[in-house]
Specification:
The complex is a heterodimer. By secondary structure, chain A is mainly alpha-helical. Chain A is built from 13 helices and no strands. In chain A, helix 4 runs antiparallel to helix 12. Classes of the chains: A mainly alpha, B mainly alpha. Chains A and B meet through helix 1, helix 4, helix 5, helix 6 and helix 7 of A and helix 1, helix 2, helix 3, helix 5 and helix 6 of B.
């Protein structure tokens, strides 16, 4: 009994301490990012440990400058365009594709459902070398649509995998009823499967948005002209500029971070359920 | 994970649509034929994208690795008439820092994967039992993973800077007497990088471990309590064995992804001070020297090493974890 009591007390202490430590570790870089974007660099350089947001010291000048002079308004629009189109196309194609793998019988089905995740084996940098050459030849390199095509190829396998494991948890009897009542397959998908799967579809949409919005490597390698930059590419651009202060850079980072976190907080419940649905076996 | 799901998936669909009677009809294709046609129609576009934009480049990469191609060649003349050669591989293998790069890659991917896994396990254990605000904490734990990599990498760079907040804190507390440049001094650059990987990717492990934790039947713990097991014993003899498969799978996935990772290293340490990993070398060949062929050969080398490691891992770990 003694050992039990000691362990319990230790665990309770560890639990409280660990929780605080984790919350601090997770939150601190983001909090610092916000402070550094609002506080003039001189103040932060003089006293790096003073991280309070004192009202009189704060200024949103960095945000104005980044948004207007450094064209982050247009980078934001580019990122939004790329992400929206990627989400729209991925969700549409993945819904039908996942339904097909979950429910329809066709030759090659086993092979497909087994090889979906093998795509993970190929690192982005390996794809990047030939795609750079290929896109240069086709004139797609400095083009947002070329980027969207790559994002589609990257997100579709995961999206199909996530949705297909969700579809398999739905009772097939509902669809059978629809088929017997004279619905075509496509009508069944539209009228029965999609309405029942909205949480999973929302989570796939959020996941795809995250990938497209945050993507760095291809945007960095492929985009040349500032009028086509996404936010990630734009941040790299100003980071190379010696005249740009830490404050400006952090303002840009905040601009890039806020939309994903906001969307995540709104749709969080769906994302967690959708990501782990069927992926972890009991 | 995918493999183990397929057997029951086939069974499901057989139940759904029984083998339709093959009665030749004047009205055209049978139900099964129509279904097959629809399947190809619906899966066509996504397959095409993946084929054209992932599989084809990955295969073409092999071709490029065996030819002396520079970036300009691909624009100008008939590059497909080039002759096959192994020069690129010689360039890669004789390159002075190939082996240090391989060592850095192994250190980085093993360290980063393990740290993220441990942090994920710790985080999941802490919020497994509900308490006031646990939902909020669970959500908050995912945020490092969803923020743009460029944004968080720059924030870390400023925080770890010799004149940044971390050094100010450590010097102020008297823990250090001299500031350390954590991003460009050996071995600190690698340690910082591994810490960054743990911080950014533990949410992924956390999510899956938590889901698995909640699927462990409560009766196991009740039975153990009856037998007088202490909390530590419960963790060691019930929780850990139950988590074995998910931990082994997460290690595999994350190792693979970290091994192939370019963005994080490029952004956080720029590949300096012992953090020049293989993916950075690919980039150096491609962008630094415009040598597409050598870049491709480097990528093939990367792929081969990863393939070998995965094979070993499957032989040694995954098979055992799945059997139990």
């Amino acid at each position: 009994m003694n050992r039990e009591r000691i362990e319990r007390a230790t665990l309770r202490g560890l639990h409280g301490f660990g929780l605080l430590l984790f919350i601090f570790l997770v939150a601190f870089p983001f909090y610092w990012m916000v402070v550094a974007s609002l506080k003039p660099l001189i103040l932060l350089a003089m006293n790096p440990l003073d991280l309070w947001l004192t009202p009189g010291e704060l200024t949103i000048r960095a945000f104005q400058e980044v948004w207007l002079q450094f064209r982050f308004g247009s980078y934001f629009a580019n990122s939004a365009y790329v992400s929206a189109l990627t989400v729209l196309l991925t969700v549409t194609l993945a819904t039908f594709g996942a339904y097909t793998i979950a429910r329809l019988r066709f030759r090659g089905r086993m092979f497909l459902s087994r090889s979906i995740l093998a795509i993970y084996m190929f690192p982005a940098i390996v794809i990047a070398v030939p795609m750079y050459a290929l896109y240069t030849n086709f004139g797609l390199r400095n083009d947002l649509h070329g980027l969207i095509l790559i994002y589609l190829a990257q997100t579709l396998p995961v999206a199909i995998y996530m949705l297909h494991s969700y579809f398999k948890t739905l009772p097939p009897t509902l669809e059978e009823a629809g088929l017997i009542d004279g619905c075509s397959r496509l009508m069944v998908i539209r009228r029965i499967t999609i309405p029942l799967s909205l949480p999973a579809i929302a989570s796939v949409a959020l996941y795809t948005f995250m990938i497209a919005w945050n993507e760095f490597l291809f945007a960095f390698l492929f985009l040349d002209s500032p009028s086509k930059f996404t936010l990630s590419r734009g941040i790299m651009q100003i980071a190379d500029n010696v005249n740009v202060s830490q404050q400006l850079l952090m303002a840009a980072a905040v601009i890039a971070t806020v939309p994903v976190i906001a969307l995540f907080l709104i749709f969080e419940r769906y994302l967690v359920r959708g990501l782990t649905a069927g992926a972890v076996k009991a | 994970m995918a493999d183990r799901k397929t057997p029951d998936s086939t069974k499901n669909s057989r139940d759904l649509t029984r083998e339709p009677p093959r009665i030749p009809s004047r009205r055209g294709p049978t139900l099964a034929q129509r279904e097959q046609r629809l399947a190809y129609f619906l899966l066509g576009p996504p397959s095409l994208f993946v084929l054209a934009l992932i599989l084809f480049p990955a295969l073409w990469n092999f071709w490029l690795a065996f030819h002396k191609v520079r970036l300009l060649d691909l624009r100008r003349f008939a590059w497909w008439e080039l002759e096959a050669t192994v020069t690129n591989f010689i360039t890669v293998f004789l390159h002075h820092d190939l082996w240090p790069a391989l060592r850095a890659t192994l250190l980085y991917s093993t360290g980063g994967t393990l740290l993220a896994l441990l942090m994920g396990l710790g985080a999941a254990m802490m919020v497994h039992r509900r308490f006031r605000g646990s939902g909020l904490v669970r959500g908050a734990f995912l945020i490092p993973y969803i923020a743009p990599i460029v944004a968080v990498a720059f924030a870390w760079r400023f925080i770890l800077n010799p004149r940044g907040v971390l050094m100010a804190g450590l010097l102020g507390a008297g823990i250090l007497e001299q500031p350390i440049n954590l991003l460009s001094q050996r071995p600190w650059a690698m340690i910082s990088l591994v810490a960054f990987e743990g911080w950014r990717y533990f949410p992924f492990d956390f999510l899956f471990i938590l889901a698995r934790l909640q699927a462990i039947p409560e009766v196991f713990y009740e039975a153990a309590a009856v037998d007088g097991a202490t909390p530590l014993q419960k963790f060691l003899y019930i929780t850990l064995p139950q988590l074995k498969l998910v931990l082994a799978t997460l290690f595999l996935l994350r190792f693979m992804w970290t091994f192939n990772k370019f963005d994080d290293v490029f952004l956080v340490t720029r590949g300096t001070a012992g953090t020049r990993v293989l993916t950075i070398k690919v980039y150096d060949f491609l962008i630094g020297e415009f040598n597409v062929g050598a870049g491709a050969a480097m990528a093939v080398f990367l792929f081969a090493v990863l393939g070998f490691l995965l094979w070993v891992y499957f032989k040694l770990v995954m098979r055992r974890a799945e059997q139990e």
